Automatic annotation (TrEMBL):
Gene3D superfamilies: Periplasmic binding protein-like II, Winged helix-like DNA-binding domain superfamily/Winged helix DNA-binding domain. Keywords: DNA-binding, Transcription, Transcription regulation. The keyword Kinase does not apply. Pfam families: HTH_1, LysR_substrate. GO terms for cellular component: protein-DNA complex. It comes from Catellatospora coxensis. This is LysR family transcriptional regulator. Residues 2-59 form the HTH lysR-type domain. Transmembrane segments: none annotated.
């Protein structure tokens, strides 16, 4: 019988690419990971990995086993959900991850409702950039996550994650009051200083792409990830920025919000197979209720 813990290591090797990265993710030593993978290979009876220079890659059999592993892990999540549903009442820790504007606008009402209706649940919130959410779910650092993408920067679905649509938002170009805005506001901002997110974040990527689609490379003058700070910089006349609707609920004076055709799309995500877990389902329901009519 193949050991599930060793299958997780093989799955993470396929995802992370190196023994050292797998060891770090699991707080193991590299030699311990290598030993466990060697045992798994003996259990399987066929080579699962092979040396390529200084690295290790999966053989076709190893890649096939990883695909089966995702199915096995999803089935285990579903089994745990079934057992949890057989218990009386909801209890235990639920780790919720969300991007900053959702933490500020959507989550408070959902958390209050969950605490009222399920007082034995221990709710923990972590603020994360959406690009980090799938790994956090997979590594069980989160149980439920609010993540998003943009139509200009769609995210490839992660096979280890299930999700439900939650919210579609207008994206605005935030400009200082009085700055002329043409029919194509992004193109009109080609000579402006831009306020963008930290490189590597989804917001930074979207700003780069929306300007590329308008035919130019933006000039990033300031970097800020909090939309309150972004709008304060815009109000001070220090540049223009992209701001989604949730980030522009209470814009300061001196800012004009010009709606664009681009959309930001938010989803509620959880590990594949865990959607029927009562605690996960309760969180999803509370978040969806808190979101209903929020932007209307």
């Amino acid at each position: 019988m193949l050991d599930v813990r060793r299958l997780r290591l093989l799955r993470d090797l396929a995802r992370l690419g190196t023994i050292a990265a797998v060891a770090e993710a699991h707080s193991y030593s590299p030699s311990a990971v290598s030993q466990q993978l060697a045992v798994l290979q003996r259990e399987a009876g066929v080579p699962l990995t092979e040396r390529t220079g200084r690295g290790v890659t999966l053989t076709p059999a190893g890649e096939a086993l990883v695909r089966h592993t995702e199915t096995v892990l999803a089935a285990l999540e579903a089994a745990a959900a079934t057992l949890a549903a057989a218990r009386t009442g909801l209890h235990g820790t639920v780790r919720i991850g969300a991007f900053p504007t959702a933490v500020r606008t959507l989550l408070p009402a959902a958390l209050v409702a969950l605490a009222r209706d399920h007082p034995a649940l221990d709710l923990m919130v972590t603020e994360l950039d959406p690009v980090a959410m799938p790994d956090a779910l997979r590594e069980r650092r989160l149980d439920v996550a609010l993540l998003h993408d943009y139509d200009l920067a769609p995210v490839v679905p992660d096979p280890t994650v299930d999700s439900l649509p939650l919210l579609d938002e207008t994206v605005y170009l935030a400009v200082p009051e009085g700055l002329p805005v043409a029919d194509d506001p992004v193109h009109a901002a080609r000579d402006a200083d831009w306020i963008v997110g930290t490189p590597g974040t989804l917001c930074h990527t979207v700003a780069m792409r929306i300007c590329q689609a308008a035919g130019y490379q933006l000039r990033a003058r300031h970097h800020a990830d909090d939309f309150t700070a972004v709008l304060a910089l815009v109000a001070a006349g220090l540049g223009v920025a992209l701001v989604p609707q949730l980030g522009a609920v209470q814009p300061p004076s001196g800012v004009r919000l010009v709606p664009l055709e681009s959309r930001r799309r938010t989803r509620i995500a959880y590990r594949r197979g865990s959607g029927d877990h009562p605690a996960v389902a309760a969180c999803v329901a509370a978040i969806r209720t808190a979101t209903t009519g929020f932007l209307t």
